[in-house]
Amino acid sequence: MERAEGAAAGRFDTELWSGLSGDFAAPALAVPEALGGVGATFAETAVVVEELGAALATVPFLGTVAATEALLAADGCDVAAKWISRIAAGDATATVIFDPVLIGDDAFVDDSAPFAAYKSASGWSLSGSAEFVIDGATADLILIPVRDDSGCTLYAVEGEHVRRTPMNTVDLTRPLAAVTLENSPAEIIGKIGEAENLLARTRDMALLAIGCEQLGQSKTTLNMAVRYARERIQFGRPIGSFQAIKHKLAEVAVAVQSAESAVEHGIWAAAEGSAEELSRAASMVAVVCGPAAVLAAAECIQVHGGIGFTWEHPAHLYYRRALSSEGLMGRPEHHAERLLELALA
Q1: Average pLDDT, the chain
Q2: CB contact at 8 A, 281 and 264
């Protein structure tokens, strides 16, 4: 349970991250070569995200992927020029606060805005707080969307100007933190009040990345359950030969195949589709992949029986991650409504 204890304290696996960001160059995959990256596409990044999800790896990759997409979409601004090459080289990590502004929740109102921006002679500053920030305890750069009378604006705040508190959550393998800003110096990404398209792209790519994680988890827990069903003997037969177990695993297999199809379509939309196609694909990923991960993890525990409920068995870690990820950027029901709206539009 070392990784669980590290995540609860806001730490990540520095050895694994060093390998990923070093010779493997994972943070640089989707970054153009001109900016110090590998020049690949999100398809290559998706493979890494899926494998990290399958292993429940405690590394700051998900937040960094989302932040990198935002910076790339705002290519040309000072913040992007300053940070993209550092992130690609593995010298810095970043994250995005996934609050209602980014998710696109219509229930969000200005009076409940978690952050407020102020302009002074020395520049912009932000005040406010948010919880459940992915890698918020360690990120060197935090991107924060703020909504005001002029619209939405995306700001960048360096980690040294943020007060962070690691959170104890149901997911024992993903470091989450509460962050507080008090007149913290900030820089604008893009133009004031013109961040809607940038935020939409960031939101959709983050949903797609989470879906890749969930797919990796779903495949792992399905394989784990199938393997155990073949090996566990009861009444002189493998339990996988019993109809009740067969039905459970078949239902999970269908859900995992649906999730894989949704992710593959999302990867295509990210590379070749329009902004509208990407939004529809991202919502579909959120609708399908979250429930698939929860179902696969829950049935994995059931197939394992008594041992599946123990602290020593990893099944509960996958179940915790699945529950947490499913609501990380809005519930599947929210995205189903959004998908309907996009289809009707």
Answers
A1: 90
A2: no
